TrEMBL record, chain A:
It comes from Buteo japonicus. Belongs to the phosphatase 2A regulatory subunit B family. GO terms for molecular function: protein phosphatase regulator activity. GO terms for cellular component: protein phosphatase type 2A complex. The lineage of its organism: Eukaryota, Metazoa, Chordata, Craniata, Vertebrata. PANTHER family: PROTEIN PHOSPHATASE PP2A REGULATORY SUBUNIT B. This is Serine/threonine-protein phosphatase 2A 55 kDa regulatory subunit B. It comes from the Eukaryota. Keywords: Repeat, WD repeat. The keyword Repeat applies. InterPro entries: PP2A_PR55, PP2A_PR55_CS, WD40/YVTN_repeat-like_dom_sf, WD40_repeat_dom_sf, WD40_rpt.
UniProtKB/TrEMBL annotation, chain B:
PROSITE patterns: SERTA (PS51053). Transmembrane segments: none annotated. It comes from Buteo japonicus. One of its GO terms (cellular component) is nucleus. It comes from the Eukaryota. Residues 30-77 form the SERTA domain. This is Cell division cycle associated 4. InterPro entries: E2F-SERTA_domain_protein, SERTA_dom.
Length: 448, 249
């Protein structure tokens, strides 16, 4: 079993599919609402419902313990957003962090964007491991010295100190969204980013906080005519003029910012024709796309709707090239899931580093991985009971009807309060982070 | 999607209502399921978190579902069967005209004046207030408090469990909120004037409670449907019944 450095396709050797090993389980004080690796995978950020951001850093590998391939430990914790009150509308603004996106590292400090429903913030996370000592005008405790008592001058020197990680808000991008922000995406030019709410998408320059450009606006003149909202948006990984956004009607629009200032007219429109045999009153709701992600290559987009994950080729708009069933056994339960509101749960989806495997969450703390090459898939569970450190995760199976085998779980026993909405995949290695309510699990390949 | 074994009937007259009611009660038919889905959806739309803005995506999806159901029900001609679940309340069907409900239900779905929506569209709210005041002025002989609108939404408090009956009332309110002046005139064209005396009496009774807006209820619920039922006496009894329930809760 080899350690996979490039995120190779899943098989039985050296892959997360067969040999996922829990290496970390962290209990958060609040429900985790977003998880994101940075561009090197060295850092992992989580945001929670209480507005806090926790950043984990991967330990440098030591030669004496090669099998401990770098555990993730807490690096920094800070309060990103506070609850606010909109006095005009008499409504609370939740402090829950909806999304975190990292900027690529350009110097010693790390930068990330975090957003709640209304405000995006740029945070700088930097280390301090030295401090100046030997000031002339103040002593070591910081108390001012009496100038008349100073008899000689000295040059302050930097001396090592215990590592301190500080997070400072460098920019606050506020007052640009009437509706709730659901996505943020950093552009490949590293100078701009976009924020999307239910009806509008705005383009920002990182240096300018008091204005943004509106690039998409689907608000109808008469709100009574509103039938569709924006659910997710993302920039193309390489082409800084291209982005996509998904809708509650199951469509994806690709826009080119070079064509016009307001990108209301799409360059491409992706929609799968409806299957008339599967039509029900819930068809539209389950077709609503909860997440859209470009592949690392930029050739494909992946969308998640309630029951499936779909992969689309950017060059083919009329249907996806691949469709994966996440939990089709729920199709007959849609009415109950509508009643308890679970049908509105927004699951995210992620690509692995080589775009060969995709992953998404489900209920009962299950998450699913699909190998696009071998067409194999697996269901794993993220829970403390079932994961002992360094013990390989056992694949799980949901039994749909008839006889239930020993290790299977029946659909009616699934716990719908245990939902895995947020997952992340290391950019180059087979390391995944899975958020299960308050718990963050990090799994990696087992190395013999 | 249809339950096997149950023939769907086209409901074309009220004389069929009683018989088919019995039939429907016996088996959970497609119609009943659909009705239950509609009710559930309406409740979901009305349930809003007063402190935090409701989720717009969710509201839009539910509203679209309501619209789909109502469109289908209108095509079936089953829209008049909206209150089939409430057995003793079957007579309420006769309180509001079928035709008006059909029209307004579509308007209702599209222009749904739900508390959740008021937060994102101030313009919309302004228009609605205007519409309803036009409505009020059309019914010139009736004094309706100007804050009827806000009271209606206060009344739609999910904690007050008045069941289907409450929902029918709410639908009546909404029906009338979204009314165009023409249909309001239709509504009132056959109203017996003796009602207004009753209204004054009832208004006096209700003036203490928070539900003072039921002045509007008495007035608007009394109008008869198109031609079939103009027996005011029996409606009076029903009115008492309505008032009793409202006062108790």
């Amino acid at each position: 079993i080899t350690r996979s450095g490039g995120g190779s396709s899943l098989g039985c050797e050296g892959s997360v599919l067969c040999h996922a090993v829990p290496c970390r389980a962290v209990l958060h004080p609040d429900i985790i609402s977003t998880v994101e690796f940075n561009h090197t995978g060295e850092l992992l950020a989580t945001g929670d419902k209480g507005g806090r951001v926790v950043i984990f850093q991967r330990e440098q590998e030591s030669k004496n313990q090669p099998h401990r391939r770098g555990e993730y430990n807490v690096y920094s914790t800070f309060q990103s957003h506070e609850p606010e009150f909109d006095y005009l509308k008499s409504l609370e603004i939740e402090e829950k962090i909806n999304k975190i996106r990292w900027l690529p590292q350009q110097n010693a400090a790390y930068f990330l964007l975090s957003t709640n429903d209304k405000t995006v913030k740029l945070w700088k996370v930097s280390e301090r491991d030295k401090r100046p000592e030997g000031y002339n005008l103040k002593d070591e405790d910081g108390r001012l010295r009496d100038p008349s008592m100073i008899t000689m001058l000295r040059v302050p020197v930097l001396r090592p100190m215990d590592l301190m990680v500080e997070a400072t808000p460098r920019r606050v991008f506020a007052n640009a969204h009437t509706y709730h922000i659901n996505s943020i995406s950093v552009n490949s030019d590293y100078e701009t980013y976009m924020s999307a709410d239910d009806l509008r998408i705005n383009l920002w320059n990182f240096e300018i906080t008091n204005q943004s450009f509106n690039i998409v606006d689907i608000k109808p003149a008469n709100m009574e005519e509103l039938t569709e909202v924006i659910t997710a948006a993302e920039f193309h990984p390489h082409h800084c003029n291209t982005f996509v956004y998904s809708s509650s009607k199951g469509t994806i629009r690709l826009c080119d910012m070079r064509t016009s200032a307001l990108c209301d007219r799409h360059a491409k429109f992706f929609e799968e024709p409806e299957d008339p045999s599967n039509r029900s009153f819930f068809s539209e709701i389950i077709s609503s796309i909860s997440d859209v992600k470009f592949s690392h290559s930029g050739r494909y987009i992946m969308t998640r709707d309630y029951l499936t994950v779909k992969v689309w080729d950017l060059n083919m708009e009329n249907r996806p090239i691949e469709t994966y069933q996440v939990h089709d056994y729920l199709r007959s339960k849609l009415c109950s899931l509508y009643e308890n509101d679970c049908i509105f749960d927004k699951f995210e989806c992620v690509w692995n580093g080589s775009d060969s495997v995709i992953m998404t969450g489900s209920y009962n703390n299950f998450f699913r991985m699909f190998d696009r090459n071998t067409k194999r898939d697996v269901t794993l569970e993220a829970s403390r009971e079932n994961s002992k450190p360094r013990a390989i995760l056992k694949p799980r199976k949901v039994c749909v009807g008839g006889k239930r085998r020993k290790d299977e779980i029946s659909v009616d026993s699934l716990d719908f309060s245990k939902k895995i909405l947020h997952t992340a995949w290391h950019p180059s290695e087979n390391i995944i982070a899975v958020a299960a309510t308050n718990n963050l699990y990090i799994f990696q390949d087992k190395v013999n | 999607m249809f339950v096997r074994g149950l023939k769907r009937k086209c409901f074309d007259g009220e004389e069929d209502i009683e018989g088919t009611l019995a039939g429907i009660k016996a088996i959970p038919s497609y119609n009943l399921q659909r009705q239950s889905l509609l009710d559930m959806s309406l409740v979901k739309l009305q349930l809003c978190h007063m402190l935090v803005e409701p989720n717009l995506c969710r509201s839009v999806l539910i509203a679209n579902t309501v619209r789909q159901i109502q469109e289908e029900m209108t095509q079936d001609g089953t829209w008049q069967m909206i209150n089939t679940q409430s057995t003793g309340q079957a007579s309420l069907d006769r309180l509001v005209s079928t035709d008006i409900l059909c029209r307004s239900s579509r308007e209702q779905a599209e222009g749904k004046h739900v508390p959740g929506y008021t937060t994102f569209n101030k313009d919309f709210e302004g228009d609605q207030a205007q519409d309803s005041s036009e409505t009020m002025s059309a019914a010139s002989s009736v004094q309706v408090p100007r804050n009827l609108q806000s009271n209606v939404w206060e009344m739609e408090n999910p904690q007050e469990n008045k069941g289907n009956f409450q929902k029918s009332l709410d639908q009546i309110f909404e029906t009338l909120e979204n009314k165009s002046p023409n249909s309001v005139e239709d509504l009132f064209s056959e109203v017996d004037n003796s009602y207004y005396d009753l209204d004054t009496m009832l208004t006096g009774m209700m003036s203490n409670s928070k539900m003072g807006h039921c002045d509007g209820l008495e007035t608007f619920s009394s109008p008869t449907p198109t031609a079939s039922n103009s027996n005011c006496k029996s409606d009076l009894n029903e009115l008492d019944h309505i008032v009793e329930i409202l006062v108790e809760s």
